[in-house]
Amino acid sequence: MVNREVVLFLLQLELDSRLQRALTYDRFDEVKELRDRRNKVDGALRMMQSKKGYGCGSRRGMRSDQFGALAPAALSIRAKLSKAIEEEDYAAAAALRDKLAELEEQSAEANMLCPVGEPAFSLGQMIVHSAKGYRGVICGWDFCCCEDDVWKRTTNAGTLVYGTDQVFYHVLVDVADWPVDIDSLEDDSLELDAPVAYVAEELLDKITLADFDSDEPIVNTPFQHPYSYLMFLGMDGGGNMIPCRQLRERFDVEREDDPFASDSEYEEDVLSEMDGGRVDDELRGIFDSSDAPSDRAAGIDNIPGIDMRSLSDNGDLDEA
């Protein structure tokens, strides 16, 4: 599920960028189409978050800003409910009662204690898998294992020291560490899927610039992943990635200034944030419909490293 969730988030970013461009050039027919597609992607994400349950990190993060309004909203509904009963408008009273019950359920969820402690790793943190040795960067998390029972059995997640009731991270795996079957590369039609790992907190270790500057660095090349330039603004002075505004908002994380950055670097980051984390025009051009490959899935242009055809197998994104 984590692969699909990351892809849907990237589609949100791309559709938002196109929507802004369409509004800038007064292409109102295109605006309506893009908004419809964005709503469908949003719907697919909401379904996934509901399936993952309370432990879903992005679900909790995106709803956290709504919790403060629950109490006054409940008081308002109760007042309207009392008035409807006094006026013997029982149909309206029934509708208000159901709405109040839904709001109280949300309030109860808001007051639930986090099933585990806060994540030990931050967005953009460079990590290394303690057992498998691959390098990656944190791009999200869940507060417990939200995959299904089949996945848990296949990966032996239940045998972990802290089991499945610990933070599980979404990790972009460095391209240098992707397992590649050399024989399969003879097929010119092969498209490799960019891996997004789902890893328990106990299996991850932090790495720093010292790991790259040592006599025997983990790898001799900079971190690379096809999704990283969409989700991160670059690398900070400590060797970690800087998450874009949309990714921070997704997990309710505040911006942290880079203590190693110079004033000019900080100003560039601020300008990038004001621009919505927009990708350079040269990179963005690969998404333009005029330049995109003819092979598309669900009416959406291909994103490097993503087999878009796999998304059309699930009805979530048809015509998205």
Structural commentary:
Mean pLDDT is 75; it is low at 64-68, 270-300 and 310-314. The chain contains 11 helices and 7 strands. It is globular, with a radius of gyration of 22 Å. The protein folds into 3 domains: 1-53; 65-110; 126-275, no CATH class. Helix 1 (2-24) packs antiparallel against helix 2 (28-52) and helix 4 (70-86) runs antiparallel to helix 5 (90-110). The chain is α+β, with helices and mostly antiparallel strands. Strand 6 and strand 7 (241-243) form a beta hairpin. It has helices spanning 2-24, 28-52, 57-63, 70-86, 90-110, 149-155, 209-213, 228-231, 245-250, 263-274, 281-284, and strands spanning 126-129, 135-142, 168-173, 196-200, 204-206, 232-235, 241-243. It has a 5-stranded antiparallel sheet, covered by helices on one side. It has a two-stranded antiparallel sheet with strand order 6-7.
Give me a quick take on this structure:
The chain has 3 domains: 1-53; 65-110; 126-275, no CATH class.
| Order of neighbouring strands in the sheet with most strands | 4-3-2-1-5
Q: Average pLDDT value?
A: 75
Overall domain count: 3
Task: Tell me, briefly, the overall form.
Answer: globular
What is the number of strand segments?
7
Summarize the amount of helix as a percent range: 40-55%
> What is the count of DSSP helices, taking H or I runs of 4+ residues?
11
Largest sheet: 5 strands, antiparallel
Rg (C-alpha, Å): 22 Å
By secondary-structure content and strand pairing, the structural class works out as alpha+beta
Q: What is the end-to-end distance?
A: 18 Å
**Poorly predicted ranges:** 64-68, 270-300, 310-314
Q: Roughly what fraction of the amino acids lie in strands?
A: 5-15%
Q: Could you give the order of the helices and strands?
A: HHHHHEEHEEEHHEEHHH
